[in-house]
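Ticket opened by: R.M.
Priority: normal
Category: complex prediction / small molecule

The reporter submitted a protein together with flavin-adenine dinucleotide and asked that the result be attached to this ticket for the collaborator who will pick it up next week. Submitted input follows.
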Amino acid sequence: MQKSNNYKKAGSTQGLSRDQTWQALQEEPSWDICVVGGGATGLGIALDAAARGFSVVLAEAEDFASGASSRSSKMLHGGVRYLQQLDFALVKEALHERATVLANAPHVARALSFVIPCETLAHAAFYGSGLKLYDLLAGRHNVGRSHYIPAIDINVQANALKASPHGIQYYDGIFDDARLAQSIALSARQRGAVLMNYCRAEMNGQADDGFDLVSLTRKDNSAQHTLRARCTIFATGAWSGERVAIARGSHIVLRDIGLSSGVLLPKTPDGRVLYMLPWLGHTLIGTTDISVSCPDYSETAPQDDIDWLLRTSSQALKKPLYAAQITASFVGYRPLVRMPGAGKNSSQFSRAHLVERVAERTLRVVGGKWTTYRRMAQDALDVAIEHGILPKGKPCSTDQLNLSANPLLDNAWLTQGQWSDEQIQKIVKSAVQDEAACSAEDILYRRLRTGFTDQSLALKLKPKVEQFLKQFCG
Ligand SMILES: Cc1cc2nc3c(=O)[nH]c(=O)nc-3n(C[C@H](O)[C@H](O)[C@H](O)COP(=O)(O)OP(=O)(O)OC[C@H]3O[C@@H](n4cnc5c(N)ncnc54)[C@H](O)[C@@H]3O)c2cc1C
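Result attached by the on-call engineer:
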């Protein structure tokens, strides 16, 4: 294991500017690990690797968490619906990870009660028994016991819902995905990881000693560097080629419609699952699950998806929802492991993850869920060690590792829309200096969540954010 990094004398790369980060990654003659992709999976690997004492560099082609990792449904969950696929091991593992995130990142994650409205007692008994199994699988990691609730209680929990004679209440977690990504990034930097956004990585063969050669190209100035890595791990999500099946999920966001609990509609008229969640002072409704051939983040949520979400959620609500109430909408592309022989319906695909050795020193991690990012990282590094690609470092410690917070940005949503110029200036400074933001979009969408909760407010704030951005990054 290498130890010679000058910039790491303090043991941390926190606060390095973009150019200093680029310089730092060029200074190393070789790296233990090069991670390609800076979503939940890649950042999780970088943190685990740094915590085990490996030297690690991560290259992200766009902004950190700009792919699926800022566009999820924000649930920390075992996946109630995967019980139907009888994949109990997967659900159990995710429930364990749910508890780990809740314990290690309380600044961006919390437990949340959910209700399932049921028309008949038979439905309540069906979902109630499934959720008892869910509780059982969670074991000591459970966050609350599921139970039957009568109509009157449903009204208290989710005032906006139409009256239903029966209901089931259960517990899962909710989190701020892009903020959790920043938390992982900050924790990784504090342990010496070098993380570079807007920097594409490509494999460029092997050196004479067998090390991988990975070419990096900066997006801002096209500067290039080829680094040597003992191990390369691709965590490129929906950009992982033929190994993944891609499912588009659209969400709409409205001003709070009066939900203090999440709502799960397990069987909508066309058979799909729909969630309504209280999120950052708003209501988040999602999601669709439509197979597509490649991700396209230039598009906003397609009108068909928006219409389906409005129509289907309205059927369960006292007052129907209208397009004019939508304050934001977004799409995400799920990277699901392509299973041979699996049908075309992506909602039936497993959410299990897969670590594969794709070349002598190269691994690829695909699939999984945000909830299980930590476990995916652990498995990837363990596989690299088992195959002798990496030496045995310190054991994995991320299950006990409290993630670092940035209170200014983690809590900014609480005062969204009321920021003074001075506060915006502080926010922009921290986003640039502590979290490597490079553009107004990085700040308004992924350091703050304004773009994901209120797109017109984000547009309004953009000129001011750009003005301060010039001050801090020229
Ligand atoms: C609609 C939707 C809803 C979801 N809901 C939930 C949920 O409620 N709970 C849950 O636990 N999970 C949920 N998920 C799943 C979760 O969001 C994903 O599993 C997770 O974010 C995947 O992270 P990732 O890092 O693998 O992929 P991504 O976040 O997509 O990251 C991959 C990154 O690789 C980068 N990249 C690609 N090629 C290169 C290259 N050559 N060089 C450098 N970088 C490159 C990309 O720019 C991208 O940022 C949901 C997903 C979607 C899409």
